[in-house]
Amino acid sequence: MATVNYANPKKDQTVRVFDQFFGFEINVEANDYDAVYSYFRSIYTDATAAGNFTVTLFRIANEQNINVLSLLKQIQTSTTTAELDRTIAYYLNNMRSNSTLVGVSEPTQPNYYASRNVRA
Fold first, then answer.
1. CA 72 to CA 54: how far, in whole Å?
2. Distance between CA 99 and CA 91 in Å, rounded?
3. Is the pLDDT of residue 7 over 60?
4. I want to staple 44 with a disulfide (CB 3.0 to 4.6 A). Which of 48, 49, 90, 114 is the partner?
């Protein structure tokens, strides 16, 4: 007799994670997805942001061949959202071209002669 606490082994216990923009798709364990999504949902009030960060974390784990739960444990040590963003940007930058780095906030200095001619 099946109960609410008994998982039916005949049913698929995976979740399909996909990102239409980058064409990324992967099947993951439902428990892993729930753990990652619930963590991001506790940080961000917007469900779309939590879903996007969840997909991003699974993509990072897939590309880097890291277990997603160990990556989540590392991310959970971040105390602020700025540290969390910095950590995710670090992993994303390892997957991207150097010309398209994310999270780089180096202010650009205009040319002295060009900036002289700008009136406020």
1. 10
2. 15
3. no
4. 49
**Contacting residues for 89 by C-beta, under 8 A, at least 6 apart:** 102, 103
Report how far residue 52's alpha carbon sits from residue 19's, in angstroms, rounded to the nearest whole number: 8
Confirm if 55 and 19 have CB atoms less than 8 A apart. yes
38-70 residue pLDDT tens: 999 998 888 988 888 888 899 889 888 989 999
Cα→Cα distances 67→28, 59, 72, Å: 11, 11, 9
Residue 15 has, within 13 A of its CA and on its CB side, a CA count of 15
Q: For the whole prediction, is pTM greater than 0.70?
A: no
Dihedral sign, CA of 84, 24, 19, 9?
negative
Cα angle vertex 81, ends 79, 86, to 5°?
95
